[in-house]
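DM between two lab members

TW: hey, do you still have the 2-keto-3-deoxygluconate permease entry open?
JB: yeah, one sec
JB: this one, 332 aa:
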Amino acid sequence: MPNGDTAVVPLFRTMKRLPGGLMLIPLVLGSLIGTLAPGALDIGSFTTALFKDSALPLIALLIFATGTQVTLRTGGPVLATTGVVLLCKSIVPGAAIVALGAVVGPDGILGVSILALLTAATNANGGLWLAVTGQYGDERDRGAYIAGAVNDGPFFALLFLGASGLGEIPLLALLAAIVPFLLGVLVGNLDGQWRATLRPVPDIVIPFFAFALGTGIDLGDVASGGLTGIVLGVLITPVTGGLVYLGYRLLLRRGAESGLGFAAGTTSGNSIATPAIVASADPAFGPYVGAATSQAAACVLVTAVLAPTLASWALKRGGALTPRQDTSEAPA
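TW: and the structure you got?
JB:
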């Protein structure tokens, strides 16, 4: 019988070997189930609860567990890293897209509306970020996951459209997104045993919530996004991930580790719902919802493949593609 250190088939080791594999492989598998057999996971009870409806609670647990790893010693660097990721991944691209919209109007360019651009570019796949930084980063990078909690979903799209007089800013939703992280910071600093206990949580929950998110992605929608959605996805990683890379290199002075920034160049699975949410706030965007949704779905899958690939390439080129040991403090 195999013990905990051996495997008949090295499933987990193979997933860990692929950059972002803990997130990417279950996401793709889930999308296949969601496309080919969408009703297979609707049989109810624990099956539906775990494999289809678990994304939000498991992500919340991950945010809490990540917070417990942020100590008084690492809090400053974590906040600095989070700020740089938000600035370079969401704020700078969002401002540029709004400026473009002022020139070309809401129709956007080349069949990609301003709504689709904001949906795809201003949020990030936090699970994939944790999967990559969990392999090659440290507590500063993993703690910056909170940037994904802030920019996930419609918040920044509404924020930037609101700057033009459209939509509402869901401040309560923003607060709700960061409360688990703040509670985790509190608990981890009060009791080091909780910090030690929750340290393995990312490896446990990422594959499960990635699969659940994947079941909500219909590959038919990805195909209907056509070439425009695929091209948009191909551009998101080098452009927005490249900005975070520059932020790591120029603002955080992380040197060879700056390649981690490309792991932020993704589109979150939750972004697929953003166009409809924006249109509910301002019906003027209704005509753009269908195309923007399918283009966002394409971006989710394309960036989930491209971002970890570019990050590992940049880290390897800098000589930093070496799995790191956790440097968090030992439990008290």
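TW: got it. Confidence is low (pLDDT under 50) at residues 327-332. The domain at 22-29+51-318 is CATH 1.20.1530.20 (Na+/H+ antiporter like fold).
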